[in-house]
User: Which sequence fits this backbone?
């Protein structure tokens, strides 16, 4: 890739990243917080500058890129400066193995769409101390009643671990970190959101556009996650997706399916960069009835 070409791409990437993080950076300068958007910078703890740095991805040679030759996990070659995949694997081999194993296992399972975002409800079930500094949309008793009338079908450990003690035994099966590879499935919103985390952790192996696509997906998923939660975010401009109703369940399922398609493309892209995605195709989704 010529110097003019890759510098133009890097500049466009930086502008896109800046647009995606403008709200966070402006709020931080004023000491303000946002209950929806800031999650991606606090839960995952990656600074906006991480998104701004463009990488071409493995196997792309950059001409006229001497300044990058000294970057970690880059090297000079006959065709220009390239990502030093051997050095990255030597330093991050355990990470590559773990991420590849998780993403491949997830890709090969059918997607489930019957959870309806009840994980957030399970985090406040029979608990007098909500986790977020925003009011509940229903009373505490009404919120508990929604959980009582539902089946918790969470498959994502990093959501399940925040369940209240009363909610844990209500899940359709126990979850643990050791079981994550065996339980993660591609319909899960949080599994899709975590693709942003894996894209960051894989660093220079991942092309910049894939990283930003993963971030945008995570942001969009977070929006639905909070709209379908028991919290009232209308003062912040978010209309609720009332999953306690048939209409709300229908909307949640429709948007969840769309996210799973976007997530599948990103997941396969990451696996391809790990040398583990050439034979993968998105699995057919197993559609569960709306209840």
Assistant:
């Amino acid at each position: 890739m010529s110097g003019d070409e890759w510098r133009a791409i890097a500049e466009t990437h930086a502008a896109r990243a800046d647009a995606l993080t403008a709200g966070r950076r402006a709020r931080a300068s004023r000491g303000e917080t946002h209950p929806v958007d800031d999650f991606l910078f606090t839960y995952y703890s990656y600074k906006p500058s991480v998104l701004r740095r463009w990488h071409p991805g493995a196997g792309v040679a950059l001409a006229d890129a001497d300044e990058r030759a000294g970057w970690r996990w880059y090297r000079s070659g006959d065709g220009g400066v390239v990502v030093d995949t051997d050095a990255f694997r030597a330093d991050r081999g355990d990470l590559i193995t773990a991420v590849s194993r998780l993403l491949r296992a997830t890709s090969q399972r059918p997607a489930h769409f019957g959870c309806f975002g009840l994980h957030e409800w399970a985090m406040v079930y029979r608990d007098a101390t909500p986790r977020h500094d925003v009011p509940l949309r229903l009373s505490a008793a009404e919120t508990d009643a929604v959980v009582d009338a539902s089946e918790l079908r969470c498959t994502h450990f990093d959501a399940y671990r925040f369940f209240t003690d009363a909610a844990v035994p209500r899940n359709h099966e126990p979850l643990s970190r050791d079981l994550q590879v065996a339980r993660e499935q591609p319909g899960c919103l949080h599994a899709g959101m975590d693709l942003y985390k894996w894209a960051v952790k894989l660093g220079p192996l991942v092309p910049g556009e894939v990283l930003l696509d993963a971030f945008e997906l995570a942001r969009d998923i977070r929006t639905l996650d909070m709209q379908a939660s028991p919290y009232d975010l209308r003062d912040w401009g978010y209309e609720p997706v009332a999953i306690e109703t048939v209409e709300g369940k229908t909307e949640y399922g429709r948007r969840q399916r769309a996210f799973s398609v976007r997530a599948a493309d990103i997941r396969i892209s990451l696996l391809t960069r790990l040398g583990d995605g050439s034979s993968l195709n998105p699995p057919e989704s197993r559609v569960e009835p709306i209840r």
In short: The two ends are 53 Å apart (CA to CA).
